[in-house]
Structures are given as structure tokens and as C-alpha cells.
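User: Hey, my collaborator sent me this sequence without any context and asked if I could get a structure. I don't really work with proteins. Can you help?
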Amino acid sequence: MADKYQQFTTTPVGNVVTSKLGLPKPPVLRRYTPGQPALEGPALLGVAQGGRLEKTLTAQLGRAGIEILRTPADDTRYGALVFDATGITDPAQLRELHRFFQPTVRSIGPSGRVVVLGTPPELVSGRERIAQRALEGFTRTVGKELKRGATAQLVYVAEGAEEAAESTMRFLLSAKSAFVDGQVIRVGTSGVTTAVAPENWDRPLTGKTALVTGASRGIGAAIADVLARDGAHVVALDIPAQGADLSTVANRAGGSALQLDITADDAPARLARYLTERHGGVDVVVHNAGITRDKTLGKLSESAWDSVLTVNLAAQLAVNDTLLSENVLGDNGRIVGVSSIAGIAGNVGQANYATSKAGVIGMVNDYAPRLAERGATINAVAPGFIETRMTAAVPLMIREFGRRLSSLAQGGLPVDVAETIAWYANPASAAVNGNVVRVCGQGFLGA
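Assistant: No problem. I've predicted the 3D structure and written it out in C-alpha cell form, which is a compact way to encode the shape of the chain:
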């Protein structure tokens, strides 16, 4: 559904009205199209004394075709500000953040990027742990202060995982991360510190098979499209009642349609058999299928509780356990859960839904170390307000409130969720495990 308020603010009259009344002006976000440059402008690279990522970052940004500056340039609009803060081992050194960003932050161009890199606080101790944890407050605040669609992220890179951060840097610096803002990402903290770059960064999933549940429309359809764009053969799964829409999605993606009720007792076994016989297994599993049955707790029936928990959580666990026990998930495999901001912050009238989506985060926490032992990963996305058929049915004032309550002052698009999942699915993201990244434009609710 079109954001008519955002469209109004881009008109001459709308610009005057919103300026005089102090109303938000949602920026037009730069989103990915094949062939576009990674950034619109150079990246200014700063390094705290003793930082360990400068050489690696220089090589990674260079391979992505990004121009790198090491000293500020007058009258330059930067595409990104990248700061290696791994050398900060004492709170007194946090002043280096101010020294780098204060003179340059106002020179970031539209849809620009700020990326701060640090050392995972849980892997160090003493004053270094305190200083590195402080980076989170800094980065989240910068994300809220930036204008014109610019975003800020913090990437904690474990020692030894420097080379494995390339897929994350490419994602965060590109237009693919348009609606990801104020997030903290960990690379190499689950024990895996290496990753193999794809032969073609534009089609990193070539030769891979990806399963997407709930794929007939909305976010699921966008996930199927993006994974197919990246080279995967997509198995699009949904219930038989969605068969016509499902076939449309599968045909558009050049993949396969599988009609299956994922909550059926025999569904995991049937799915495992299908993936093994038809595709020799599966490389990427995206648990997107989900339902809502919204009522405040005092009016919530037992059947409404059970149905949401079954579809949104129990079915995912059953499928995971079967695919893993029967070795259907391939080497360097990926499992991605779709959580929600409701699973982090809660939401009135969604006790069942929020419980199920918080459970998806628990699933990631529990499975991550086990999957690391198999050379696989599990992560989750937590969408905020995304423009879908479901949110289009929300009452007008609630819908407008949901759109504006973020640093980017607008709703996201299904493709924003899909691009984040594609980053997780990338073979080069082998050291990205156990993460939950919000796709919410840095929504003001939740952590």
C-alpha cells in the first residue's frame, strides 16, 4: 500500500506544510537494483589506535568497488563513515569516536552509511569490555540523529574472524540494508571464524536449493524472488488453499511449488523426503510461514492460542529437528527464522503472536551452537512495520503511527526483509550465527 503521507511530503506544498508544522519528512530510501554502485560517494575510513581491522577493511571495501578515503576531504559527501574501534581498550579512549565522527557526520550523503566495528564485549574483560559495550549506545544514538535515509550499525568482530566479516560489510554498506538501522551484529562469536567468498558476489547462491515457507504472498514472495535473484532454486511452500498464488511465485522465481500444511503431523517427514528425492537436500531453510489471531488476553481463546503457537513456532522446531536428524540440510547450510518486533517489545492484543515470535529468538539461541558444530548457521530477522496486505488492513491512525515510529519515519517493504535473509543465506556469512537483526528502520519500541 502506498504511503500517501510520504508522497505528500515530497511535493512543494507538502515540504512547506511539514516544515512549518514540524512534521516528519520520511526520506526516499535508496534500495538495491542490480548493477548500481555499492555507495553513492566514497567511504571515509577511521581507525582507533591499535585497531586490528584496517588492512582487512581496506581490502574488503576495495573488492566491493568502494573508493576509500583516510582523511576528511572538503566539500565531500561521503557514502559511508567506517570506524574500526577494536583498538579501544579503555573508556578514556572512547573520545576517539568523537574525534572521528563529530567533524564528518554532517557530511554523510542521502541513504549514507555509518558502520562502527568493535570486539565482542563478552569475549574480553575489564575496562576493554566496558569500553566495547559502550559502542552500542553510541551507534544507536547516531542512527537516531542521522537524516535523509542514512543508517548506523555496530558490527562486533571476534578476533580471528576479520576476513569472515566481508559479507556483512557488503550488506550493510549497500542499498540492500535500506531499512536496517541501529542494529548490533556479531561475527565469529559462535566458534566459526572463517568463510569462503562466493565465486560471484552478485549470484552467491548459484547451485543452492532454498526452502521458503509461507511463500505465496507478501514477505514470503519477496524472499523467494530475492533468493532466486541470487541464484538459488527456490522451493516455495504454502498451504493448498494458496496454491494458485504459490504457483505464480514459484514460476516467477523459476523454482518449484510445494503445497503442504506445515503443521500436519507427517509434514516434516514428507518435506524431508521431497527435498532429498527432488533436490538432493536443502541448503537454505527460511521459516516465514506465520499467522495472527489477535485478541487481548482476557478474550483470547485456547484454540487461537494453540493455532498461532503451532504455526509460528512448533512447526519450525519439528521441521528443523527432522531435517537435521536426517541430514537433509547441506554443508554450510542456513536456517533463518522470521521473528517480529512483537517478540522483542510485545504488542497489545498479540500475547499469542508475541510469545511465538519470542520463541523464534529462543530457537536461534538454542540451535546456534549445535549448528556451528555442523558448519551451519541459524539466525533470525525481526521485522517492524512492513507494508503488506496485512498492515494495509490496519486502521488508518494506527497504521500511520506504526509507520512514523522509527528513525526512518516510514514502513519498510517486504524486499527489505528478504535482502536481510539473503545476507544470512550467503555462503560467505558462515561466521554470522546466532544473530537476531531487526528490520524496522530503528523502531522506537523494543531494544
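In plain terms: The chain is about 40% helix and 20% strand. You can pass these C-alpha cells on to your collaborator as they are.
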